[in-house]
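Training component of the fellowship. As part of building independent skills, the fellow (R.M.) carried out the full modelling exercise for a liganded target. The chosen ligand was flavin-adenine dinucleotide. The inputs are recorded below so that the supervisory panel can assess the work.
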Amino acid sequence: MSRYFRARIKSNLPLNRNHRLLSLVNMERMKDPLPGQFYMLEVSKGNDPLLKRAFSLFRRTSEGFDILYRIQGKGTALLSEMKEKTELDVLGPLGSSYPAPVAGETPVIVAGGIGIASVYSLIEQVRGSAYLLYGAREKDDLFMLDELKAMAREFFISTDDGSHSVRGSVIDMLKGFLSERTSSEQNIVIYACGPRPVLKEVASMADAKGIRAHVSLEEHMACGIGACLGCVVKVKGQEQAGEGSSLYKRVCKEGPVFDAGEIEW
Amino acid sequence: MSRYFRARIKSNLPLNRNHRLLSLVNMERMKDPLPGQFYMLEVSKGNDPLLKRAFSLFRRTSEGFDILYRIQGKGTALLSEMKEKTELDVLGPLGSSYPAPVAGETPVIVAGGIGIASVYSLIEQVRGSAYLLYGAREKDDLFMLDELKAMAREFFISTDDGSHSVRGSVIDMLKGFLSERTSSEQNIVIYACGPRPVLKEVASMADAKGIRAHVSLEEHMACGIGACLGCVVKVKGQEQAGEGSSLYKRVCKEGPVFDAGEIEW
Amino acid sequence: MNLEVKIGKLILKNPVMTASGTFGYGQEYAEFIDLNRLGAVVVKGLSLLPKVGNPPPRIIETPAGMLNAIGLQNIGIEKFISEKVPFLLGFDTSVIVNFFGDSVEEYVKAAGRLSSVDGIHGLEMNISCPNKQAGWCIFGTDPKVTSQVVGAVRRETDLPLIVKLSPNVTDISLMARVAEEAGADALSLINTLTGMVIDIKKRRPVLGNLTGGLSGPAIRPVAVRMVYEVYKAVKIPIIGMGGIMSAGDALEFMIAGATAVAVGTANFIKPSSTVEILDGIVSYMEAEKLEEISSLTGAAHAG
Amino acid sequence: MNLEVKIGKLILKNPVMTASGTFGYGQEYAEFIDLNRLGAVVVKGLSLLPKVGNPPPRIIETPAGMLNAIGLQNIGIEKFISEKVPFLLGFDTSVIVNFFGDSVEEYVKAAGRLSSVDGIHGLEMNISCPNKQAGWCIFGTDPKVTSQVVGAVRRETDLPLIVKLSPNVTDISLMARVAEEAGADALSLINTLTGMVIDIKKRRPVLGNLTGGLSGPAIRPVAVRMVYEVYKAVKIPIIGMGGIMSAGDALEFMIAGATAVAVGTANFIKPSSTVEILDGIVSYMEAEKLEEISSLTGAAHAG
Ligand SMILES: Cc1cc2nc3c(=O)[nH]c(=O)nc-3n(C[C@H](O)[C@H](O)[C@H](O)COP(=O)(O)OP(=O)(O)OC[C@H]3O[C@@H](n4cnc5c(N)ncnc54)[C@H](O)[C@@H]3O)c2cc1C
Ligand SMILES: Cc1cc2nc3c(=O)[nH]c(=O)nc-3n(C[C@H](O)[C@H](O)[C@H](O)COP(=O)(O)OP(=O)(O)OC[C@H]3O[C@@H](n4cnc5c(N)ncnc54)[C@H](O)[C@@H]3O)c2cc1C
Ligand SMILES: Cc1cc2nc3c(=O)[nH]c(=O)nc-3n(C[C@H](O)[C@H](O)[C@H](O)COP(=O)(O)O)c2cc1C
Ligand SMILES: Cc1cc2nc3c(=O)[nH]c(=O)nc-3n(C[C@H](O)[C@H](O)[C@H](O)COP(=O)(O)O)c2cc1C
Ligand code: FES
Ligand code: FES
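Fellow's submitted model of the complex:
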C-alpha cells in the first residue's frame, strides 16, 4: 500500500471543450484518500513537460479514483490526449484534507469553477447536510449538477454571464447567503475551493463574521511531498529573523487545505 | 508545391517487434521524390525530442509516400506510437538520389538491414534489371521478400544467424557475386545502403574491381536542408588550409547518395 | 502599429532576425519563407579565409536542445561577397554579417573588407568561439582582450557594429559594459553554452570536437536572465536569442530588455519559425493594444 | 562486483547520492525507497540560524528543466541536529550535510558545530548561492574569496570536506583548483545555472525572487562538460550532478570523471529514481563485465 503507484486510464471523458473527467484504476492497493487531498500525475514520458501535475481527488471509485480537470497548458493538454489503457505514475493521496464538520456545525461549501473538483468528495461525505454554492463562468462550465443537487441540503448556482441560474459570482451568492442565514443557522463552517481572489474574499467575509473557513490553495509544485519547499504560501506570524521557517507553509504538506485565517492573503 | 508540408498518418503498421511501415497522406501537393531521397519527419509536438528525424523515401504511393523504419531511440519510439489520422510536419524530398543506371549498365543493389528502405524505390524503378543482394540479422528482419523477388533479376538473401537462406553477411554475398559474375556481366554498377562498415567494404571492393558504386550515408542531422553544416562526411581531397570547405560534404545536401570513391572512409 | 526597431543607426522593419549559423547564407530558407518579411538576415559566421570546420559527428540532440560543434566551417569572406551577396541584394531586408578571426588583426581585416561591400548593413562580431577545444577563447571571456579587439574593429568600420557575447562567463554585465565602452553599437546574446555528451557504450564524447555549443529551448531561461541583467548594465540595444521557438518566447526576451530577437535552432525544426513568430508578435500587440513594439523593450524593469 | 567509492577518507557503499535540496532531510523519501540502499544522503542546505527563504512563486517549469528560487529556506543547524539526525542515525548510509553561510565566520561556525555531532559523515559546502538577487555571490565566483572561505572551513573540521561549485563562472577548472589547494577533499558539480522566466501577460519575472536556479535534464550537457574539464584539472574526487534522470546519465558523469553522482530534480519526478539508477548501473556493469565501479571514473580520458 504505497503512495507511489501506477494507475491505468479507464476513461478520459470530454465534458466540454476544455474539461475532462479522468477515471483511473489503481494497479496496486492505495491508501484511502480523504476529501481535499490531491495526487501528482505523470503527464509525459519524456523530459518536457518534466514535472508531475497536481490534481485533487474528485471522487473515490470502486476500482480507483476520478479526477476532474481543466486543460490549462501543455501538461493538461497532453493528459487530455491520453487514451484508455495508458498507464501513469501516480503519487498520492497527498496533503491535508477538509476537516469533517463536527456535530452541530452547518457546512457551507463554496466552489468556484474547477474548484468543484476539490470539494466534490467532501459533499459526498456530508451528504444531505451542506449548503452548496457553485459558481462558474458559464453554463457549459458547470458539471455534475444532478448529482450535486441530490447531495446538497440547498443548492445555489451562479454564472458570470448569466447563462445558467443567477448572473453573478459565487462571492455574491456567499454574501447573500451569509447575510440571510447567519442568524438562522448557528454554527456555519465554510469550505471553499476556487481562484485565489475568491478564496481571499471568502477569508475576509468569514473573518468579518467570525466564521471558520477552510480553503484549498494551489501553488506550483515540484515534488508534492514536502521535500523541495517550492510550493509555499505565506502565513500570518512572526517575520523576525531566525523564526523564519514558520513564515511559509507548504501547500503540498501542511496544505492544500488551510484555515483561511492562517493565510497572509 | 512546397517541400515543407503536413501529412496525415494513414497507417503505422508493425512489421515485427521493432520495425514499422508508415503510410503518409500528403495534405498538400508535394514534389515528386526520387529514389534515394529522404524526408525529415516531426516526431513530437514538444521540445523533447526536439529535432526532426530523417527517413528515406521507401516508396511513392497514390496519396503520398511510405516510410519503413526501425525503432532506434526515443524519436522513433514516439513515432511508432502515433495513431492513424495524426498529422505531422514534413520536410522533403531532400538530398541527392541514386543516379539511374545508363544503357548497358547492370545494376547490383546491396541492402543491409534497414538499408532496404532506401533502395526499394530504386528497385521499383529498375524493375527486372537489377541483381538484388539483401542481408539482415535474422529471418524476422527481412521485409517485402515477395515484392522484391518479383522485381529483382536475381535475388540473393543472407542472414547473420542463418535463419533464412544463406548464413553470412551481405558483404560475403557481394564478394561471391562479384568474383563469379564480373566477367560475365560487363558494366556492373553498385548501389548500396546499410551500416557504415558494410558500405566501406562495398567501396573498397568496388575500388579494387574498378566498379562504380553509389552509397547512401547517414549522419546526425539538424536542418536537413544544408543550412547547419551539421551532417558532414569527410571526402577525399585537399586538406590544405583555406581550401577547407571542400574537405567535407553535407549528407543532407550533396548526399545522402555519394559516389563511394569520393568518401574518405 | 509600428514594428520598427533601431540597432544603432540601422533601422529594422521589425525585430525578428535569424541567428548566425542557423540560417545558412539565407538562400537555404528562401524556398520556405519570404525573406522580405524578416527584420534582418544574419548569415553564418565568416572568416577572412574559408574554414574546414570540425570532424564529424558535429551534432547531437540533448533534452530540449542540441549540441553543435561545426567548428565555424565557412566559405570565406571573398566567396561570400562574390557568390552570396548578389543573391541577398535581391531582398528588401537588412543583411548582417557575422564574422570572427583568430587574432585581432584578422578581426580588423575581416571587418574592413566587409565594410567595403554594398548590400551589407551591419556587422556582428562573434567573440565567443564556444567550440574551441583548447580551453577558452579569450576574446569573449577576458575583458581586456575583449576591449582591445572590439576597439580595433570599431576603428575600422562605420557599419553598425554588434558584438555577440558568450554566456560562458561569470559576469555577463561586465562583458557587456566592456563591449559598449569599446564602441559596440549593440550586443547580441546569447551564444551557445559549452556542453558535452558521452557515449556510454564507447566511453567517449560523442562529438568529434569533444565539446559543442548547447542551443535550443533548454538554454532559454539562462538567456532571458542574461538579457535582463545586461539591460540594466548598458544603454545600447540588445538582440536577444537562445531557444526562441514561439512568439511568446520572443516576447519574453523583449520584455526582459531586448530591442530585437534572433531565431536560431527553431529554424531547423520549422523552417517557417521566423515568420510565424513575427505573426505571433503582431497578434500579441493587437490583443494588448500596443502601438509601438519598442514600448515592450525592458518592460519587466518598469515600476 | 565492487560498488564502493572513496570521497576523501569517506567510503560510500555505492556511488549514488542525493543532491542537496531535492531530498529534504531524508525523511520525506523514506516512505518511497529504502534509504539503506543509498551511497549517501545529502540533506537540504543548512545555515547556523533558520532561514525564511524567498517569497513565492518559487518554482517554474522550463523546457526539460525547472527554475527554483527557494532561497535556501531551512530549519537551521540546531533543529536539524535535534530533530533530523536521530532519524538518519537509524539508517546504514552516509549522511552528508550541505551548509552555507553569509560570511566566512558563519561558514566556519557552521562547520565547527556540525563536526561535533555524531552521525554526520561529511560536509558539503555550498559556495554557489545562485539565488542571490543582488548580483553575484562572491564565495563561489571570486577565486580569492573562495580560497579564503574554503581554507578557513578546512582548518575547522576533520570531516571529509566537499566543496560544491557554481557553474556560473568563466573557468570552472580554475575554481576547482582553488578549492583543491585550499584543502577540499572532493568537489561537487554542478549547482544550478542562473535563469529567469517572464510572464508575458504580466510583463514581470514569474519567480518571486526574479531569478532562479535551472536544474534538470536541460543542463546535463553543461554539467558533463564541466566534470570532464575539472577531472583534468584536479586530483581530488568529483561528485557529478545536473540532470541525472537515468543510469545512463549517471554513467555519463562517471565516464567524464566523476567518482560518485548525485540525483536531484529526478527525485521529484520519480521518488524511486535513486535506487532505479543504482540498479541500472549494476546492470551496465554486468553487461560490460566490469568488476570495479571505480574503473569507470574518467574512462573518457583514456587513450
Ligand atoms: C493541490 C492542487 C490541486 C489541484 N487540483 C486540480 C483539479 O482537481 N483539477 C484541475 O483541473 N486542476 C487542478 N489543479 C491545477 C493543476 O495542477 C494545473 O492546472 C496544472 O498543473 C497545469 O498544468 P499545465 O501543464 O497544463 O499548465 P502550464 O501552465 O503549462 O504549467 C506550467 C507549470 O506551472 C504549473 N501550474 C500551472 N498552473 C498551476 C496551478 N493552477 N496550480 C499548480 N501548478 C500550476 C504546472 O504544474 C507546471 O509545472 C490543482 C493544483 C493544485 C496545486
Ligand atoms: C538520410 C537518412 C535516411 C534514413 N532513412 C531511414 C529509414 O528509411 N528508416 C530508418 O529506420 N531509419 C532511417 N534513418 C535513420 C534514422 O534517422 C534514425 O534511426 C533516427 O533518427 C533515430 O532517431 P531516434 O530518436 O529514434 O534515436 P536516438 O538515438 O534517440 O536519436 C538521438 C539523435 O541522434 C540522431 N540519430 C540517431 N541515429 C541516427 C542515424 N542512424 N542517422 C541519423 N541520425 C541519427 C537522431 O536523429 C537524434 O537527433 C535515416 C537516416 C538518414 C540520415
Ligand atoms: C548549428 C549552429 C551553428 C552556429 N553557428 C554560429 C556562428 O557561426 N556564429 C555565431 O555567432 N553563432 C553561431 N551559432 C549560435 C546561434 O547564432 C545562437 O546564438 C545560439 O544557437 C542560441 O540561439 P538558439 O537557441 O535559438 O539556437 C550557431 C548555432 C548553431 C545551432
Ligand atoms: C528545489 C531545489 C533546491 C536546491 N537546494 C540546494 C541547496 O540547498 N544547496 C545546494 O548546494 N544545492 C541545492 N540545489 C541544487 C542541487 O543540489 C543540484 O546541484 C542541482 O539541482 C543540479 O542537479 P539536478 O539537475 O539533478 O537537480 C537545489 C536544487 C533544487 C532543484
Ligand atoms: S511541492 Fe515540493 S515541497 Fe511542496
Ligand atoms: S542537416 Fe543541416 S546541413 Fe545537413
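The panel noted the following from the submitted structure. The pocket of flavin-adenine dinucleotide (ligand 2) is lined by residues B 38, 49, 51, 53-56, 68-70, 72-76, 114, 117-118, 218-221, 251, 256; C 61 (CB under 6 Å). Chain C touches chain B at residues 21-24, 28-29, 31-32, 44, 49-53, 55-61, 63-66, 68, 70, 73-76, 216-218, 245, 265, 267-272 (CB under 8 Å).
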